[in-house]
Amino acid sequence: MKLSRGILDFREIFNSLSTALDFTYSGLSGHHKRVAYMAVSLAKKIGLPGETIKNLYISSIIHDIGAISMREKEMLTELEVKDPYTHSELGSSMVGKFSFLRPVCEIIKCHHHAWKGENPCGRKGDEIPLESRIINAVDRLDVLIRPGACILEQSAGILKQLKEISGLIIDPGIFAELADLAERESFWLDLGSEFLPAVLNGLLADIDTFAGEDILMDISLLFSRVIDHKSRFTHKHSRLVAAVAGMLARLSGFSGADRVKMVVAGLLHDLGKLSVPEEIIEKPGKLTPGEFRVMKRHTYFTHRILEGISGFSEINRWASFHHERLDGSGYPFRLAEDSIPTGSRIMAVSDVFSALAEDRPYRKGLPRESILEILETMSGSALDPEVVGLMTENFGLFEKLAKRDDPLAEE
Ligand SMILES: [Fe+2]
Ligand SMILES: [Fe+2]
Ligand SMILES: [Fe+2]
User: Fold this and answer.
1) Each residue of 241-297: pLDDT tens digit?
2) 3-state secondary structure string across 113-125
3) Ligand 3 centroid distance, CA of 299 (Å)
4) pLDDT tens-digit profile of 320-342?
C-alpha cells in the first residue's frame, strides 16, 4: 500500500484496537489505556530515552493481550493474581511472531514478575526489565481503582495499599516515583477522564509513531490471532476471511494497494467479537434470541473501534459491514443495497464461505455441494450475485485456501 508519511499512526491504531482488549462482563474497562498513560507518564518523569518510552507504550497498551477469555480477565483484577504467568507467556509468544513487536516480547513476559523473586525465569529485583517493573506497578494501581467512586477520594487509600506490596511485588524505587507523581490531582483526574486518549497521544507527541504497511500488517495479524483465539473453532477464521477476500479482490480487479486494505479489513472484521462472552461463541447449539442480540453487537463494535483510526475509513466499511445484506435485512446498520460498497460485499461472501467451510461447535465443515447450494440461495437477495459468481467460477482456489493451516502464507 502506498502510504505517505504521517497517514497511519501506530498510536491511533493501538489506542483504538486496545479498546477491544478491554471488553469485560461488565462492559468496557479502559484498563490498557490507563496503564499505558501511567507507564508513559512515569517513564517521562524518570527521564527514560525515546526508544524505551516507545517500547514501554506499545507493551503497556497491549500487556494483557494473552488474557483472552472474560473469565481470565476477571482473575487479573485481584491485587495478588493467582496465576499471572499463563497470560504473560501467551501474550509474549503472540507478539514475538512479529519483527516490529519483538522488543516488547520480554517486557510482556515479565509484567507480573515480583520484585522479591520466585518468578518462573528466576530473575528478581532489577534483573527484571525496567519496563516490566513499571507496568507491574501501575497495573496494580489500576486494579485498585473503584469505578464510579470519586477518584480523588480514593487516591490516598490506593497508595497505602501499593505501599504494602512495595519491595515484595513492586519495585520500591518505582513506587517512590509513582507516589511522587500521584501528588498531582491531574494524574488521578486524567485516569478517570474521557480526555485520556488525547492526553496519552500528547505524551507521545515527540516519538516517531509512523506506521508503514509492514507495521500495519503485523498489528492486524496480531489482533486477528487474539480474535481467533476466542474459540478453537475459529482458530484461523480471520486469516481465512482475509485470504479469501484478498483473492476475490484480485479477481474483481482491485489495485495492489486496495488488496492490502482488503486483507487488513478481513483480519479485523470480527474485532468486535472480543465483546462476546466465550459461553456464547462456544455454545454447541442454536443461540437464544437474547444471545443472538449479544452476538449482533460485534460488527457495531468493530465499526466504532476502527472509526478512531485516521486513514481507515474504507478498511472500516469493508470490515464492519460484513453482516449487512443487499435486501436490507442485515445488521447492525440495516444498510440498503446502494449503501453497501463492493469491498463490503466481497467481505460478506468471504465470511459466509469461511464459516461454511470451517467446523463449528454444532457441525463439521460443509462439503463443496452444500456450500455452493447455500451461496446460490443467498445470491441476489443477501449476497452480491457478481461476487458469488466469481467465487463459484473459481471455487477450487478458495477450497485450497480453506484447507491450508495458514491461509495467508505464500505458496
Ligand atoms: Fe497482566
Ligand atoms: Fe493488566
Ligand atoms: Fe462476523
Assistant:
1) 999 999 999 999 999 999 999 999 999 999 999 999 999 998 888 999 999 999 999
2) CCCCCCCCCCCCH
3) 6
4) 999 999 999 999 999 999 999 99
The alpha carbon of 101 and the centre of ligand 3 are apart by a number of angstroms equal to: 27
- C-alpha–C-alpha distance, residues 311 and 148, integer Å: 35
CA of 74 to the centre of ligand 1 (A): 11
The number of residues making up the chain comes to 411
Residue 60: nearest ligand to its CA?
2
What value does the mean pLDDT take over residues 151-177? 97
Ligand 2 center to 74 CA (angstroms): 10
Q: Please give the domain boundaries of the chain with CATH numbers for all domains.
A: 10-203 (1.10.3210.10), 230-403 (1.10.3210.10)
Q: How does pLDDT run across 28-79, given as a tens digit for each residue?
A: 889 999 999 999 999 999 999 999 999 999 999 999 999 999 888 988 888 8
Shortest-distance ligand to the CA of residue 272: 3
**Ligand sitting nearest the alpha carbon of 273:** 3
Whole-number Å distance, alpha carbon 139 to ligand 2 midpoint, is: 5
Kindly list the protein residues that place their beta carbon closer than 5 angstroms to ligand 2, a single-atom ion: 64, 139
Going from the C-alpha of 105 to that of each of 57, 65, 88, the distances in angstroms are 13, 11, 10
Distance 239 CA to ligand 2 centre (A): 27
